[in-house]
Structure formats: C-alpha cells, structure tokens
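My hope is that you will study the record closing this message with an eye to the fold:
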Amino acid sequence: MTNGGKGEGVRTALVTGSAARIGRAIALRLAQEGYAVLAHYHTSREAAESLAREIAERGDRAELLAADLSAPDGPARLAEGARRAGPIDVLVNNASSWERTPLDTQEADAFDRMVAINLRAPYLLALEIGREMHARGSGCIVNLLDWSVERPYPEYLPYGIAKAGLAAATRGLARGLAPRVRVNGIAPGTVLLPEGSSPEQAERIRRAIPLGRIGDPEDVVEALVYLVRAPFVTGTILTLDGGRSLR
C-alpha cells in the first residue's frame, strides 16, 4: 500500500457493504493507508455517513455510493458511479447477505436472493472493474468468502453455494486477469457474532476454535492489508477461522 495523502497520485479503493461491521473496519484502514475510499452502502445511509465523517475527521477522503447490488443492474450502476471518481486501484467485495434457509422450507426465491448478492454482484463487479484494471496495467481485487465454503451448513445452503461459486470465481479471475491484476479471497470464520447471540452460543463457538477465541474484524483487516501489499500472491484464499476448520 502507498500512503498517497490527498493530492495528486492518490490511489482509490472501492469497498462494498462498508457501512458496518467488517466492511467499516476495512474502509477505515484503507483510508488510514492513504486510499481515497469509495464507500458503498445500500440501506444503511446513517451508518455510511458516520463512516464518511470519521474518515474526514482524520484528514482522509471518502465518498459514499448507494446501490442495491441484488438488483439486476446494481453492479453496473455501482461500477459506473465508482468510475466517475477515477481509476479504481483496489476493489474489496465485502457486501454479503446471510439468510437461514432450512431444507424443508426452502424456496427458489431464497436461492436467487443469496446468489444475487453473494455471487452475481461481486463477480460482475470484479469482472467489469478487473477488465478496466487490466487495461490500465495494474489492480488488486479481494473477495470476502466464508470459512464454511468447504463445509457448508445445511440450513444455510444457498448462502454456502453462492460463496463457493465466488471462491471459484476468485481463482478463475486470478488466472484470467494475470499478470496485471491480482485477485485473492479471505474466508473468515466467526469474527463477529450474529446479532442476538446468547453468551451460551458464544461460549460454544469459542470452545470449537482451537485458538480459543472468537475473531475480530481487525483479523480480517490485517489479512486484507497483506493481500493488497503482496505482489507475488494471486488466486489465494486465506482462511481466518482460528483453526476451526481443522475439526
């Protein structure tokens, strides 16, 4: 990463789903590293505005971009809005939707929703922006996946299928956009508990993690910093689960 300040030569990062949780932490860190941040959000306008204010108070740059990535034209509209800010140096596909879909009640609409936001949108964004990066000569794309890609939960199967597809897309785009553009993925385990989790649920999860703790958004941020900085890494998916997938 380069710390370009706010003048000529500033590099730009587009972060989808940046208003809260992991996306917010990523946006804040990229701004700290000197990137002008294009902070995408859908419905969380107040949280996105709070993020932009925090970045501005630090003397860094942020611009908000609203888009419904589940809509058929959502990825193209976001790419068009981002393009007006200038060339994109880093794309972080973080926006995601996690919906419980039990097999006995699952319907086609649930599958379509999970694929639209978790696979179709990040793939199309990476494809469109990646081609522009390739034509320009450089760029970095990081897709946020899930540690359960290799061990999908039956009650969240459409989500798991979509994330597995995004893992395949990550590797395929890494080959197709090389050598000018690097494409990698991060597959977090439990780095934030789902809202409403009980202390008992948290303790069960903690005991299932060999490193003995639940992760933190900063764990993901550090992995992202590594991938953006690593010039000889592409097509790699870093699993950040504290060793949980070993069991």
